[in-house]
Amino acid sequence: MTEISGSTIGEFLDSLASKSSTPGGGAAAAMTAALGAAIIEMACSFAIGRRKYASHQDQLQHASDRCREIRARAIELADLDSQVFQEVMDAFRLPRDSKVRRECRKRAISRSAENSARVPLELAELCGELVGLGADAAELGNPNLVADAVGGAALARGAVRICELNVRSNLALVSDDEFVASARRRLRHAVDASQSADVLVERYLSNDDSPEDSTNG
Asked: Which of 79, 87, 159, 182 has its Cβ near the most Cβ atoms within 10 Å?
């Protein structure tokens, strides 16, 4: 399979729509997160370096830099998601014609599912952070870019929901109770962090004020 990072948008969508198990929802979630990070980064750029936002330059620059890092990592996770999913499928194909082989297969499925759960779990945590960065860009940056900043947070929120489904699906196959408990705690924290995106969207949708700034100057 061609790496997603080396594909055009059209090629990725064709691959996603094809009758193949990879790329799938996990890769789509990662690319959605990358889109969210990119649009928040863009929103920050219209306030960075402008005198009107001088008091918030540090926060906006941090948000921009962090979005760039998350965007790059999300693309990596899109490729990685396909790889670890294939490992799970390979484990399921192991022979089970004896008790020993069945036990080996069970352990292999658990190990591969644990590795597979780590990818959407990391992505969910990054998305939870993205929501906060989007809020910062919306509240501290250029008001003409509020829809972009908030929209980026909304994209991250959507990606988290896919991650939640994928993590839970993988954890059902993991036999390590300690890992499962830890992963569930981390996932719950990421989901909670992302929920503010819904509040953020509603807040700005209910605000009828027109932007008072201009993207020029």
From this structure: 159
